[in-house]
Amino acid sequence: MKKKLGLWRKTLLGFAFLVLILLAIGFKIYFVAPIKVEKVSYIDDYKTISLEFDTDIILDSKTKEGIYITDSKGVHIPLSFHLNENSRTLIIKPFDKPYSLGQNYILMVNEVQGRWFGNIKEPMLQSFNISKLPVDESYGLGKFITEKVDNDKDYYWYVDQATTGEYAGTNCGPASAEMIGKWVDENFKGTAKEARELDYGDDGGWYTENIKNYLDKFNIKSKIISNVTKSSMISYLKNGNILLLGIKAGEISFNDPSNKQHKDRFYWVSAGHFIIVKGYIVVDKVIYFEVYDPNSWYETYDDGSLMGINRYYKADEVVKASKVWYDKLLLVEPN
Question: Which pTM was predicted?
């Protein structure tokens, strides 16, 4: 009888031990199993990323450090994270500004903190490209940008000719000269008023040559080029230059300033006028030159910025407006 009881106890102990082993295995599978990314989706035109995991995750510092995006130069993009209520879908997008058009990026999911202590078994890498970006509807240009060059600066260099003194009404040339000086050198001290006094002290209109002569005084690299074409302008802009053109303003389509859009001419003046072309964009297959037009006269967009800043004029219209007026441009090189 004692032998039977002993055998019975051993059997129960063996069974209990087996149950404990199975429970331990189950615990490990349930609590420490590797986390997998089940699906990667781009949920809008700005390439906002949705990561769907096969289990609940925690959005902590470890997860934020373990998921990152780099550009083609390996620079990390500041990101914004949002974990949906289901705790399995993580939304990722750039923190402060959109991705750059035409740029290649790499998404790396290297480490994710699971609610039950799991983690990524194998890092996930996925590359993506920004081939188009939505256009702000308030600009009035269309839906998608597919190409863009903008030789802007990270400081303010625009000049409204309305602020240039006694001859402001005809100071589009001197105002453009001052803008060029500021574009080349943030600390440029010349002014449109000074430029007017140095060359043609009265209210006469300027020629492209007058602007070049003024810039030469400051050793600013520029050259006059005849026979303006759209393709050559685009090539110059791609090389990092800006361009000054004398145009017949009336050849640029008119858009009433009350519309507060960035597209087309916003003033009634239709005669000769100087503008600076600092870039171009392609929106819905239409090419626009990105312009600093000095003729703001205090007109502003809804955000308070002057209307001559970042105007978009159709490239074909700009070329025609140049040819019927002077058919020359001034190419200005970066410092």
Answer: 0.82
